[in-house]
């Protein structure tokens, strides 16, 4: 936690500096590793890795796995595992696709292109995802079947339920509004992105001040003011820098021209419009905030971590650990539904192999992000960062032109090394 | 002092045909410490886990303040102000002291969110009384020493106005100084009118701290006695042989005289 000593041969000045900021040193390590990774790829690709365009693509490619990884943190923290997320994603995507293209778009229903279709399809998907998740959680919590087995079964069952729902066909094209969830087809645009960024900065600073006031009112020690200011400044710059980068990726001129032609106008010469933040990334940010609040500030989150740390103690404290398992897997199912919406919207179609091997990516993201399989330890932001690191590694190697088999070998090795580093780190800090 | 705080009558529980607790009857009065003694596997911990809601008895009656109580879960037990300090301490090692102290009973803000600062403030308050040297409020309890962990477990039991306290081997993992601290705490709680069940292996502890004692063997009650009416050797005889001395009230598990002779 915050008051442990920093590892490594740092001078006393550096130690004091970081100690005063009271940052999670493991988070710093991960961010450091991520930055180093990006810089290496940037050098090797001669500057093509850290372009607004590539960063934009990286973020939208990460969203689906990252959304599921936040739920996997809860699952792994309580010493369970969920191998069915990729298949569940396929089933939910199939349901949403059928609902929007066959059922709602039917002339007797809402009709093709109705503005309410996307949200109804999404709601249907979330209901299906939560129900399946809760059912699996019930089998684990109340029937006592190990999560590994239940979800291994789920891996086979849901992949093929998806196949049945669609009779093996690819369903699409999906509703136009729905596909805006996918990434490049739906972005906030420049002004709205700046507003979003400024709101985020305001919120962060307000939370920082509120927390400091609350601590002071209880008479607890608070960080020095300069540390608070430094921290606030770093976070603000990071948020606004991210928004600026996504805004700097401009819509290609040819596409812009077509958009103007579609609207029946001519495009002014030399006009440039940035994409801004994709809706899918907004969704991920909302999920991340909601899941972090759940983990840190609700009883549910507290019980999840307590149960992960010592299931017997949790039970003796009057926590209903069985029902807790149902809730955790229901959340996981709901997040699979959101991820399914993003993944199918990004393709514009629902295919049977959607989400294949995602269970492994999701678990790897959570684990690289510092979630311990022994339970009780894990963070939401870590899992998202883990997903981002995995995706960067994969697409970076693709850009460099590493052979496909070698790419997977590297990802596998990195996964094992990341866990080793984490174990060594924990031993040294005594956490 | 006429109505017992707790009366457990004819408690039975068996696991897969083994009678872990077999028709045991014990009682506890306010301001009294009752020691439960016996070998490993004699059924002391099991008996006490019925009272704390961790196990459900097969048969038997629990009376609290003379009224029948229905205890089916740890939550029920807490609603009768029964608090337990388990031998294993039952702490979530990955959480800090405040989270453990309030586990299952978190303080919340008006919006329903967990109020960590308020809980930390309360924890600091009670710790300054119980263990003034306690400083590691932000470390997970796994980073604490045995004594510090023990004081977290005790704080949890004491904080919520317990009326009935169950202590399972409270001093087993402690050093001399910390054992003394627990002894003083027990005297203090007695004065406040709590009833305490103390499970212990240490006969010396029992004689020092308890008013009465009850001995179990093979799931049955050998007998119970005031600590002033029996000697160390008497109690050892009860634990090892199941022989009930003249100063004690024999239970169903007491050896009948003929068997001793024969």
UniProtKB/TrEMBL annotation, chain A:
Return the InterPro entries for the record.
ABC_transp_permease
Spans through the membrane? 27-44, 56-77, 83-105, 117-139, 145-166, 178-209, 229-252, 273-293, 328-349, 361-384, 404-425
| Broad class of the protein's primary localization | membrane
Q: What terms describe the molecular function in GO for this protein?
A: transmembrane transporter activity
Q: Would I find Transport among this entry's keywords?
A: yes
Keyword Cell membrane in the entry? The reply is: yes
GO annotations of cellular component type = plasma membrane
Keyword set for this entry? Cell inner membrane, Cell membrane, Membrane, Sugar transport, Transmembrane, Transmembrane helix, Transport
* Coiled coil region boundaries: none
Membrane topology qualifier: Multi-pass membrane protein
Q: Which domain of life is it from?
A: Bacteria
Give the subcellular location. Answer: Cell membrane
Q: What does this protein do?
A: Part of the binding-protein-dependent transport system for D-xylose. Probably responsible for the translocation of the substrate across the membrane.
Which PANTHER family does the record associate with it? ABC TRANSPORTER PERMEASE PROTEIN YPHD-RELATED-RELATED, XYLOSE TRANSPORT SYSTEM PERMEASE PROTEIN XYLH
State the name under which the record lists this protein: Xylose transport system permease protein XylH
Q: Gene name, please?
A: xylH_1
TrEMBL record, chain B:
Q: What is this protein called?
A: Ribose import ATP-binding protein RbsA
Q: Which PROSITE patterns match?
A: ABC_TRANSPORTER_2
EC code: 3.6.3.17
Topology in the lipid bilayer: Peripheral membrane protein
Cited Gene3D superfamilies: P-loop containing nucleotide triphosphate hydrolases
Q: Where in the cell is it found?
A: Cell membrane
Instruction: Name the Pfam families on file.
Output: ABC_tran
Keyword annotations for this protein, in alphabetical order, are:
ATP-binding, Cell membrane, Hydrolase, Membrane, Nucleotide-binding, Repeat, Sugar transport, Translocase, Transport
Q: Where does the ABC transporter domain lie?
A: 6-243
Single GO cellular component annotation? plasma membrane
Q: What class of enzyme is it?
A: hydrolase
Does the record bear Membrane in its keywords? yes
Is Glycosyltransferase a UniProt keyword of this protein? no
User: Which top-level group of life is the source organism from?
Assistant: Bacteria
What gene name is given for the protein in this entry?
rbsA_7
- Molecular-function GO terms, alphabetical: ATP binding; ATP hydrolysis activity
Q: Which InterPro entries match?
A: AAA+_ATPase, ABC_carbohydrate_import_ATPase, ABC_transporter-like_ATP-bd, P-loop_NTPase
| Protein species of origin | Roseibium album
Its primary localisation, in coarse terms, equals membrane
